[in-house]
Amino acid sequence: MSDGESTDKMRLDRIESKIDKMTEAVIALARAEEKIANLDKSTQILLKRMVEQDERLWVVETAQRENTATIKTIRSLVWTTLSALITAAAGAIMWLIKGE
Predict the structure, then answer these.
(1) Dihedral of the CA atoms 22, 27, 28, 29 (nearest 10)?
(2) Rounded distance, CA 4 to CA 11, Å?
(3) DSSP for 8-77?
(4) Amino acid 14: pLDDT
(5) What does the CA dihedral 44, 50, 54, 55 come to, rounded to 10 degrees?
(6) CA–CA separation, 34 and 36 (whole Å)
(7) Considering all CA atoms of the chain, what is the largest pairwise distance in Å, rounded to the nearest integer?
(8) How far is CA 81 from the centre of its chain?
(9) CA 76 to CA 83: how far, in whole Å?
């Protein structure tokens, strides 16, 4: 084997080595791109779920406001009725006491 052939062989080996490294880099880039695509899908799913949860929260808050208003009205009616009953009972007791 001549000196020129061994130099060519070494040169071809270096080129092969560089091509192998480039192949590994392309494969790594493809894997990274696939991971990014999967993360994008996951992000879209999470955003969709967040929007759904926000809508559900809005419905719950609306119902809570309506319930608060209803409870306030019921509480007022109960206290008014209770006050009227106590006043009527006190009046009846006073009427019975004076009637004697």
Answers:
(1) 90
(2) 10
(3) HHHHHHHHHHHHHHHHHHHHHHHHHHHHHHHHHHHHHHHHHHHHHHHHHHHHHHHHHHHHHHHHHHHHHH
(4) 92
(5) 50
(6) 5
(7) 144
(8) 45
(9) 10
Q: What is the mean pLDDT of each run of 10 residues along the chain (100 residues)?
A: 79 93 96 96 97 97 94 96 96 86
Query: If you search the block for the tokens 């992000």, which residue do you land on?
Result: 43
Residue 82, both tokens: 């209770």
d(CA 36, CA 29): 10
What tokens appear for 75 in the block? Answer: 């509480």
